[in-house]
Amino acid sequence: MEKTVVSEGVGLGMGHYVGAQFRGGCVLFGPKPPSHAFKMNKKLKVFAVTCRFYVHISNYFYSFWCFEDLELPTHQTKKIVNYVKQMENTKKVLLVDGGQIRQNLKLATQNLHYVDVLPSIGFHSRFGSVSRSILYEFCVLSRNF
Fold first, then answer.
1. pTM of whole model > 0.70?
2. Hey, is 116 helix, strand or coil?
3. What distance in Å separates the CA atoms of residue 51 and residue 54, rounded to the nearest whole number?
4. pLDDT tens per residue, range 50-70
5. Please, which residues have CB within 8 angstroms of residue 36's CB and are 6 or more apart in sequence?
6. Could you please report the per-residue DSSP string of 44-69?
7. Fold for domain 62-142?
8. Which residues partner with 142 through β-bridges?
């Protein structure tokens, strides 16, 4: 066999050939798992998520309530628990408040795992909150949403 490179001065002396063309060398263009992803325009993605959101609203007709204000008189958790009990057969509730989340609302819901509070700014973000809101059985919106 003829040498591919000179023995000295190259760093490949004593037969250290690890190229793909040599026995025991590297694997070149090995198998790759197939990708099932497909490209979609951003506007089309937003449209698809929005359509799914409106289908969810139409399927669960009584799943949205709208209030003038989500202001609570106190920060007690039992007030929120009583409100959730009034909503029949709900397991997860999303509260969307306009602007910043009020301190009483935040304190009252912080230790309830089935109630989440979002500001309206977070709800209007591209994909996250609109698609996340489909996971909730009940959504309560404030008027200044």
1. no
2. strand
3. 5
4. 777 777 667 664 567 777 888
5. none
6. HHHHHHHHHHHHHHHHSTTSEEEES-
7. Ribosomal Protein L4; Chain: A; (3.40.1370)
8. 67
Q: Where are the beta strands (DSSP E) in the chain?
A: 64-67, 93-97, 115-119, 138-142
The SS3 assignment for 7 reads: coil
CA distance 4 to 111: 70
User: Using one digit for the tens of pLDDT, what is the confidence trace for 78-103?
Assistant: 888 888 888 777 788 888 887 788 88
Q: Length of the chain in residues, anyone?
A: 145
- Residue 98 CA to residue 44 CA, distance in Å, equals 27
Sheet (strand 93-97) strand order? 64-67, 138-142, 93-97, 115-119
The residue type found at 107 is: L
